[in-house]
Design brief:
Layout: E1 3-6, H1 12-24, E2 28-31, H2 42-47, E3 55-58, E4 61-64, H3 66-74, H4 87-116, H5 123-144, H6 157-172, H7 183-193, H8 196-202, H9 222-226, H10 233-236, H11 241-245, H12 269-278, H13 284-295, E5 301-308, H14 317-330, E6 338-346, E7 353-362, H15 368-373, E8 380-384, H16 390-401, E9 405-406, E10 409-417
Parallel strand pairs: 1-2
Antiparallel strand pairs: 1-3, 3-4, 5-7, 5-8, 6-7, 6-10, 9-10
Helix pairs in contact: 1-3, 1-6, 1-8, 4-5, 4-6, 5-7, 6-7
The chain binds glutathione.
The site of glutathione has 13 residues, from loops.
GO molecular function: glutathione transferase activity; translation elongation factor activity
Domain GST N-terminal: 1-81
Protein name: Eukaryotic translation elongation factor 1 gamma
Length: 418
């Protein structure tokens, strides 16, 4: 008999169990619940006397509280170790679950609720909860500086719960600007939500471009408040209806991309990309690399080496590749004006894995919009290529050509951004 999970999606608390089920390969039947009505019926209150979702109905009886449910689902297939086997690791799972719930999510939820009009808006209180959330994020950020996962070297239910606990905040108030001091939290969050098991359940996540505006509607009376569901992750990505009604200035028409306004260059990015893609491997040096340097225009373009700063955290090659793929996906907005090769390199068998890359950008500096919008940039050291230095030029050639070794390290994989 399939387990039944009561609670409509999108809802981060419901997602926790559904994602855990994806990892352990358990099938769960989702039962939508209309909040405000169905969750207050005598039948529902028998499942959860608190009248809240989610509730999981198991053959032995109902369970409520989203974290308890996600842990239960994780333990259904002990061999997967989504809930780890060792006592110490189990305690660490609980530690991060409780920490994210109490020190981050609770505060962020209050912040969102005040802005959404589910609680009276109080600027002083908002400042206090933001400060508290920042303290929690700082602790998490420091811990994640040298780690991909919260516990051990693979995903556990702690990662599912913590990522889901960040989700509503990311969609409403935790803009990339606010999270700038916490690059490891940001990297961690996007790495998790881009895993297939997450994506299947929650789809694409959109980060709030600006802090959710304060709703003009007065906070609902407690009774009506009960009827509202917690911020709905997918819909929250779009402005809430209240936001449309308020006095927030309407966004100005999109300004022209400053890179389109640069003086024309004889080098055409698309021509280079075509040459790169269409040259046969055997002719690569002779045709593509020679063609590249023949057309390279240092007045209209610049080349940059990048090195991932936290090599020691790259203990698995597939995770390192995911990290690079995520970075390149997030650079989509600058695709027209950029080209890159990113190599995953292994100094000794089994890692840790280095990430070394070369980027070609339109303009003589790294574009400001890239520095402003891509948090990944801070995870790398950047150095402008001196094109008059033959060694540096040769390193560019290596990254373009993908030989078996680069910088004396074995090439595991090279990803191209074009
Ligand atoms: N701590 C609970 C929170 C549950 C909760 O607040 N659920 C909300 C939806 S996310 C709900 O059912 N609200 C309806 C109500 O309070 O009437 C958990 O993690 O499961």
């Amino acid at each position: 008999m399939a387990l039944k999970l009561y609670g409509s999606v999108p809802n981060a608390n419901v997602f926790k169990a559904l994602i855990a089920a994806e990892y352990v390969g358990e099938s769960i039947e989702s039962v939508p619940v209309e909040l405000g009505t169905q969750n207050k019926t005598p039948e529902f209150l028998k499942l959860n006397p608190a009248g809240k979702v989610p509730v999981l109905v198991t053959p032995q009886g109902p369970i409520f509280e989203s974290n308890a449910i996600a842990k239960y689902v994780s333990k259904l297939r002990p061999a997967v170790e989504l809930y780890p086997a060792k006592l110490q690791d189990q305690a660490l799972v609980d530690q991060w679950v409780d920490f994210s719930q109490n020190e981050i999510r609770g505060y962020v939820q209050e912040w969102v609720s005040m802005r959404a009009g589910r609680m009276p808006y109080d600027k002083t209180r908002e400042g206090a909860v933001k400060g508290k959330a920042m303290e929690g994020l700082k602790t998490l950020n420091n811990y994640l500086a040298s780690r991909t996962y919260l516990v051990g070297n693979k995903v556990t239910v702690a990662d599912i719960i913590v990522a889901c606990n960040l989700l509503g905040g990311i969609q409403n108030v935790l803009t990339s600007g606010f999270l700038k001091p916490f690059p490891h939290v940001t990297r961690y969050f996007w790495t998790q939500v881009n895993q297939p098991e997450f994506k299947k359940v929650i789809g694409e996540v959109t980060q709030a471009a600006k802090e959710m505006p304060v709703s003009e509607k007065p906070a609902a009376a407690p009774k009506a408040e009960k009827k509202k569901e917690e911020p709905k992750p997918k819909k929250e990505a779009a402005p809430a209806p209240a936001a449309d009604e308020d006095d927030e200035p309407k966004p100005a028409p999109k300004p022209k991309n400053p890179l389109d306004l640069l003086p024309p260059s004889p080098m055409v990015m698309d021509d280079w990309k075509r040459l790169y893609s269409n040259t046969k491997v055997k002719d690569f040096r002779e045709v593509a690399i020679k063609g590249f340097w023949a057309s390279y225009d240092p007045a209209g373009y610049s080349l940059w080496f990048c090195e991932y700063k936290y090599t020691e955290e790259n203990t698995a090659s597939f995770m390192t590749m995911n990290k690079v793929s995520g970075f390149l996906q997030r650079m989509d907005f600058v695709r027209k004006h950029a080209f890159a090769k990113m190599a995953i390199l292994e100094e000794k068998a089994g890692g840790p894995f280095h990430i070394s890359g070369v980027w070609l950008f339109r303009g003589t500096e790294i574009p400001k919009q890239v520095l402003d919008e891509s948090y990944d940039m801070e995870l790398y050291d950047w150095a402008k290529v001196d094109v008059n230095d033959s060694e540096q030029k040769e390193r560019v050639n290596d990254l373009l050509e993908e030989p078996d070794t680069i910088d004396g390290k074995t090439v595991v994989e090279v990803k191209c951004f074009k």
